[in-house]
Amino acid sequence: MPSDRIIIVGAGIIGLGIGWRLARAGRDVLIFDRDRAGRAASRASAGMLTPLAEVRHEEEALLRLGLKGLEQFPDFVAELESESGFSVGYRPDGVLLVGVTRDDIEYLRYRYDYQRDLGLPVAWLSGGQARAREPQLSPQVGAAVWCPGDHQVDNRLMVKALRAAFLKSGGCLKESTPVETIDVARNRVRGIVAGGKAYPAATIILAAGCWSRLIPGLPGTARPPVRPVRGQILRLQMTEDCTLKTIVWYNRAASSAVAYLCPKDGGRLVLGATSEEMGFNDSLTAGGVFELLRAAWEVVPGIYDLPIIETAAGLRPGSRDDGPILGKTPVRGLIVATGHYRKGILLTPITAYSIAELVLTGKVPEDIRPFGIGRFA
Amino acid sequence: MPSDRIIIVGAGIIGLGIGWRLARAGRDVLIFDRDRAGRAASRASAGMLTPLAEVRHEEEALLRLGLKGLEQFPDFVAELESESGFSVGYRPDGVLLVGVTRDDIEYLRYRYDYQRDLGLPVAWLSGGQARAREPQLSPQVGAAVWCPGDHQVDNRLMVKALRAAFLKSGGCLKESTPVETIDVARNRVRGIVAGGKAYPAATIILAAGCWSRLIPGLPGTARPPVRPVRGQILRLQMTEDCTLKTIVWYNRAASSAVAYLCPKDGGRLVLGATSEEMGFNDSLTAGGVFELLRAAWEVVPGIYDLPIIETAAGLRPGSRDDGPILGKTPVRGLIVATGHYRKGILLTPITAYSIAELVLTGKVPEDIRPFGIGRFA
C-alpha cells in the first residue's frame, strides 16, 4: 500500500496546479474528477489577473494574497510553458476601469482614493485620456482609472498546459471518475473510493470547487463552507472595425453584472460576468445575457455588430468572506484548496506553491495563514 | 428519359410543401438541397401565422394572400398530420400586440384603425384588459390590440412532417447535394446537374430561399430578385413562475427588432426576431441578442430568469416589395416559389396548393397572380 500517495479531488485549475507541483517534486499524485479536467469554473472564467481592479475595502488580506499571486505568475508561467510545451497566452495588458453615470464615477473615485492610500500604481484619467488609451470606448465614458499592474492569461490554455505538465511529471489523472466517498477513520484520512474501488492515501487534497463540501464521508468540521456563485459569460469575435487593445472594466451601478471586456490572442473578446446566488443552477439566462450585453454596449458601442461565438455559465466556489479556504483541516491528512470565488486563475500559482510546500514540509506557509478553514469555526 | 419528372431546388418548408402536393398527385418529384432539409430559414423561424398582427398599409394584396393562406391552414395540417403521422403543433392562440411608450401606442392606434377599416376582427384593450388576458405582461404596457384570428404552428415539426409525407408519397429527396447548374436551352429547362450527374426534367421549381438567384445557369430574366434578411432568434425554457398563455408582440419604437414572445407546446418560448440587411452574413450578434432581450424584458419582465436553451440566426428571402415571388418565369418549365420573407410558414399551404395546381394544369391560379416575377421586370 503506497502510504505516501497523494490524492487530489478535482482536476480544475487549482487541483491541476497543486498536482503538477507535487508530481514534479517526485511525489505519487493521483487526481480524480467527475468530468473532464477543467470543465467547470476554470473553463467559464475569463482569465483576468486583476487584483488592482477588484480591490475592495474589506479585503486587505485578500488583496495582499492577490498581489503576491500575480507577482509569482511570470515565473510560474515560464516554467509551465517550458515543461508542457504549450503557450498560455499570458499578457501584462493593464485594465481600464471606466465610469459613465455620476454614480459610477463617484464610486470610481472612492475606489481610486483607496487604491492610492494603499500605494497601488494606478492613474486617474479623464474620459478623453481614457479614449486615447482605448479608442473603442464610448463618448459616454466620463472618467477612468488605469491599472497597468493588472494582467491576463488564457485560462483554457492554462488548464491544457497544467494537465500536460502534470502528466509529463508522472502524475496520474482519472477523469469522469467521481469520488464516491472519502474514507476517514479516527480523525485521519485513509483514502477514497471511486468507481467502486478503494484508493488508499495518506494525504487528500480537496479542490473540488463549489462541490467540495458535498463529497461523502467528510466530517462536518472539515467541510469547507463554499457555495456556488453563478457566472455567465459570452465570447465574441472581434473584427477590424472593433478590436480592443486593453481590458475594459465597468461596474455598472445597480446591475448584477460586473462587466468586463477582455480581448484575447486570436481576436476573441470575452465578455463577463454575472455573479448570481442561484444554488447549483448553472443555466444561461435571458437576464444574465441581457445585463452583460447592455453594460458592454454602453461602454464599447462597437460590440453591437460582433458575432457571438459562445455562451457559457459556470459555478464559482464562494466562501463567506470571498477569500479562499486553504490549508490543513481538523482531519489529519486532509487539506483544502477551494473557495477562490472570482480569483481562481489569479491565485493558481500561489495556491499551488503554498499547498505543495505544506504537503512537502508539513508547515503552513505564511502567505496562506489568514485563509485557513479555522476562521469559519 | 423521364420527361415528366419535376425537380425542386431547395428542401425548405416551401420546397417540401410543393413536393408533397405533387408527389401525392402521382407525379415523379425529386428535391435537391445543399444541406439537410429545412435547416435554413425554415428552422430559424418561430412559426407565427399572424397576418393580422403584421398588417401594413402598403401591403393589401399580401394581406389578402396571408388571410387566405391562414384559412387553408387547418385543412392542410389535418391532411399532413394524417399522412405523415406527426403532429405539427398548430395552435389558434391569438396575438396580443402591445405598446409601452406614447410612440408605441400611437403607432398601435394607427395600425388598429387600419385593421378596423379593413374589417379585420381585432379589439382595442387597455393595459389592464391586456394583463387580464396575459398576466405576465408588464405594468408598463399601456395598451394592446387583441388579434384572435392569428395562429401559430411548430415550424420544425412541420418540416419534419412534410419531409415524411413527401417521402411516403413516393417523392425522392437528395440532401447535402447542391445543384451545380440549371440546364436551359432555347429558353426551356432541360434538367439540372448535381454531384457531377445530370438529372433531366421538364419542370424545375426554384425554392431555394435567399440563394434562389445564385443557382448557376439561370438566365437573368428568370433570376428572382431576392436578398437575404437576417433574423436572430432565441429559445427560452418557461418555468412555473413565468409561462405565457398567448403570443405577445411588441414593435418597439426605434429598434431593429420586432420582438415577439411565442409560447410553444412543451414549455419553450421562442423570442424573435431581428430583421437585418447584412448580406449572407448569418452570425448571431451581440446587438441582435441584446435588442431581442431588451424588448422582451420590457414587456414581459418575468423572462429575466428563464434559461436560454438555444440561439439561432437565419437568412430570410426578402423581395423588393416584401411579397413572395410565385409562378412562371420567362423560361419555359421554370417556376419560382421564393421571396416569402417573414411569411414563409404562413404561406406554405397556399404556395404548395397554388404551385402544384400551376404544374398540374398549366394555369396560374388567381391567388398568386399578383405575385409573379413579372412585376419586377
Could you tell me the strand content of chain A as a percent range?
25-35%
**Biggest interface pair, counts:** A-B, 22 and 21 residues
**SSE class of chain A:** alpha/beta
Label the overall shape of chain A.
globular
Please give the oligomerization state of what you see. Answer: homodimer
The N- to C-terminal Cα distance of chain A equals 34 Å
How is the biggest beta sheet of chain A arranged?
A: 8 strands, mixed
Overview of the structural elements:
The structure is a homodimer of 377-residue chains. By secondary structure, chain A is an alpha/beta fold. Helix content of chain A is 28%, strand content 27%. Chain A is built from eight helices and 19 strands. In chain A, strands 5-6-4-14-15-16-13-17 form an eight-stranded mixed beta sheet, with helices on both faces. Chain A has a six-stranded mixed beta sheet with strand order 8-2-1-12-19-18, covered by helices on one side. In chain A, helix 1 links the parallel strand 1 and strand 2. In chain A, helix 3 packs across helix 6. The first copy, chain A, starts with 5 loop residues before the first strand and ends in a 16-residue tail after the last helix. At the A-B interface, strand 13 and helix 7 of A face helix 7 of B.
Topology:
Two copies of one chain form a homodimer.
Chain A: E1 6-9, H1 13-24, E2 29-32, H2 41-44, E3 48-49, H3 60-84, E4 95-99, H4 102-117, E5 123-126, H5 127-133, E6 143-147, E7 151-152, H6 155-168, E8 172-174, E9 179-185, E10 188-194, E11 197-200, E12 203-206, E13 227-237, E14 247-251, E15 257-263, E16 268-274, H7 286-299, E17 308-318, E18 325-328, E19 334-338, H8 348-361
Parallel strand pairs in A: 1-2, 1-12, 2-8, 4-14, 12-19
Antiparallel strand pairs in A: 3-7, 4-6, 5-6, 9-10, 10-11, 13-16, 13-17, 14-15, 15-16, 18-19
